[in-house]
């Protein structure tokens, strides 16, 4: 090597992000759609919910809440799908509209994310999704809470007059709210009384086919589970009531 040659420093190897996900979990589906939109390469690790993999001490090191999803970005672990979407949109900015820098536009996006978590997804999940897996009854009160949440979103869309939930462009808030709305297919809910939601949801599907493909497949799994609820009687869940497996009828008990 000549005296004038300079040494080339080796470049650090950047490891792809890892997503710990469950294939039919709405929060996981939201993160996968976000990654698709941002064109981020990642490793997908499917967590076996039925086997309780998320309840293990090893998983708790990644997320002490033992909830799914979680991302691992070179040793940086992050749970909560809202926080993950915000992190990804900031780290991999594809455009100026997906998670706007404008103060008021971003505030609206953040509001819609909070609304989804506190009210919209919460009430849809409690009525349509949670009873599939756990011992939760569907009640008239639960249905009323779901309908109030729908009325709220419908009103927000009417007030803003925008094509999407916060602006005229797709944002991370649309991904969360569209994912929640898709869960209504589990109970075959008719959205015709909520015209603005219906219009916005159709726009989401038509203008974002790659995202809808992910969402449709995941919700399709939920629909199948709703027809044949899984047996989770072996799971020791600290929060959700577990539906106990019904004993098989014998000839004696059947008489």
Automatic annotation (TrEMBL):
Domain GST N-terminal: 15-96
Domain of life: Eukaryota
GO terms of molecular function: glutathione transferase activity
Keyword field contains Transferase: yes
GO biological process terms, semicolon-separated: glutathione metabolic process
Gene3D superfamilies: 1.20.1050.10, Glutaredoxin
Stretches for region Disordered: 230-255
Any one Pfam family match given in the protein's UniProt record, by short name: GST_N
InterPro entries: Glutathione-S-Trfase_C-like, Glutathione-S-Trfase_C_sf, Glutathione_S-Trfase, Glutathione_S-Trfase_N, GST_C, Thioredoxin-like_sf
Annotated GST C-terminal domain residues: 102-230
PANTHER family given in the database record: GLUTATHIONE S TRANSFERASE D10, ISOFORM A-RELATED, GST-CONTAINING FLYWCH ZINC-FINGER PROTEIN
Family: Belongs to the GST superfamily.
Protein name from the UniProt record: Glutathione S-transferase u1
Organism: Lissorhoptrus oryzophilus (rice water weevil)
């Amino acid at each position: 090597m000549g005296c004038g040659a300079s040494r080339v420093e080796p470049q650090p190897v950047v490891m792809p992000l890892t997503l710990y996900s469950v294939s039919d979990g709405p929060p996981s589906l939201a993160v996968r759609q976000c990654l698709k939109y941002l064109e981020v390469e990642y490793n997908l690790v499917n967590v076996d919910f039925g086997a309780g993999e998320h309840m293990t001490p090893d998983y708790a090191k990644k997320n002490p809440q033992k909830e799914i999803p979680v991302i691992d970005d070179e040793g940086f672990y992050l749970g909560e799908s809202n926080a993950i979407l915000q992190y990804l949109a900031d780290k991999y900015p594809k455009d100026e509209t997906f998670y706007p820098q404008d103060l008021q536009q971003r505030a609206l996006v953040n509001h819609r994310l909070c609304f989804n978590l506190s009210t919209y997804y919460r009430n849809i999940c409690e009525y349509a999704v949670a009873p599939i897996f756990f011992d939760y009854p569907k009640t008239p009160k639960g249905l009323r809470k779901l309908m109030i949440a729908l009325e709220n979103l419908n009103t927000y869309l009417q007030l803003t007059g925008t094509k999407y939930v916060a602006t005229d462009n797709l944002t991370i808030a649309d991904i969360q709210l569209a994912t929640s709305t898709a869960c209504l297919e589990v109970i075959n809910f008719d959205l015709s009384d909520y015209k603005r939601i219906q219009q916005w949801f159709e726009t989401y599907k038509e203008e974002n086919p790659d995202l809808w493909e992910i969402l449709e497949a995941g919700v399709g799994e939920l629909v199948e589970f709703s027809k044949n609820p899984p047996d989770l009687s072996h799971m020791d869940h600290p929060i959700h009531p577990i539906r106990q497996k019904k004993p098989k009828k014998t000839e004696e008990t059947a008489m």
